Amino acid sequence: MFSWLNKIIHEYKEVYRFRYVIFSFVSTNLKLRYRRSFLGFIWTMLAPMMHYAVIGFVFSHIVKTSVENYFLFYFSGALLFSVINGIMNRLNAACLFTNFFNHMIIDKLEI
After folding, report:
1. Do the Cβ atoms of 41 and 29 come closer than 8 Å?
2. How many other C-beta atoms lie within 10 A of the C-beta of residue 71?
3. What is the spatial distance between Cα 60 and Cα 38, in angstroms, rounded to a whole number?
4. What contacts 43, CB < 8 A, 6 or more positions away?
5. In this structure, are residues 33 and 27 in contact, taking their beta carbons and an 8 Å threshold?
């Protein structure tokens, strides 16, 4: 009856089983990506948060918008937009990368 739930539970068990491998991949990726940056990964989290804080402060205190909890609305919308934007940017690169290797494999099989 709940076969989809069993599949999800199985996937989570597999992720938990290989958590050390996933942690190793993520840490290697972060080290390689931010090796020349002074603050590294912290800066990628700190810069957007400072941006959200400044915009939220300006529009809620200086401009005095009439919307209650403006900062909460702005932050939730901006966060959602950032996540979708990041996914779309990475998805494009992933599709191109996968397509590149598919053509290489198909070309070698045809020879």
Report:
1. no
2. 17
3. 32
4. 34, 37
5. no
The domain ranges of the chain are 34-110
DSSP secondary structure string for all residues of 26-94: HHHHHHHHTTT-SSTHHHHHHHHHHHHHHHHHIIIIIS--SSTTHHHHHHHHHHHHHHHHHHHHHHHHH
pLDDT in tens, 16-48: 888 888 888 888 888 888 888 777 778 777 888
Q: Give CA–CA dist 91/66, Å, rounded.
A: 38
- Residue 103 is encoded by which pair of tokens? 């053509």
As a whole number of angstroms, the distance between CA 15 and CA 5 comes to 15
Question: For residue 4, what are its two tokens?
Answer: 């989809």
- Report whether 60 contacts 53 (CB < 8 A): no
Tell me the pLDDT tens digit for each residue of 46-61.
Answer: 888 888 888 878 877 7
Q: Which amino acid is at 4?
A: W
- What's the rounded Cα separation, in Å, for the pair 59 and 61? 6
- Token match 């989809």: residue? 4
